[in-house]
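Chapter summary example.
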Amino acid sequence: MLTVENLHVYYGAIHAIQGISFSVRQGEIVTLIGANGAGKSTILKTISGLLQPREGKILLEGEEISTLAPHQIVARGISQVPEGRRVFPELSVLENLELGAYQRKGKEHLKELEWVFELFPRLEERKNQPAGTLSGGEQQMLAIGRGLMAKPRLLLLDEPSMGLAPLLVKEIFAIIQEINAAGTTILLVEQNAHMALSIAQTGYVLETGEIVLSGSAAELVRNEEVRKAYLGL
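The structure predicted for these 233 residues follows.
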């Protein structure tokens, strides 16, 4: 579904992503794990069109998307849930969700809205509240819901567990699995390697802009380097 080939991304003179290649098959959950500064979020921003690669290609079902603008990439079926939630605090929960469907026509988005409220009943209860009044966990639910309103085929999730209590983390990850089971392919960036590998089929380990390990999630969980560096085992 998604193929990244020899990707190089710079911030000025800083070579942030150094020739990485990986793929995401349709229907999978694929996770990118690594320490802060490894380049995980940079990869998602580049796939979304928020950053332009210096070299390399990003292909979605064989079509190169590396040179497209972000709204064109959304129109092709990729939606990103950013790190830190980035909700619009003054707008209501419903208005935030409707912004996620801004490219869709008429009432096409109402089916997704109904599904988002099924996944996150608390959002329906608070649909008229300003998003800034929600708890951190509720804002994360809203950010994911907003991403789903574009009806993506590929959902990019950037640190969905950040700052959440352990029980909420379990809830969010269970919902990510539910979204995947409903047919949405997921590329997950996550510092909580244990949770990420527990739901993913495939994983890639990043260090300073390079992929240093890859394999099935089960293989990575058994890998001694991963266990010591990321799983605390």
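To summarize the output: The two ends are 34 Å apart (CA to CA).
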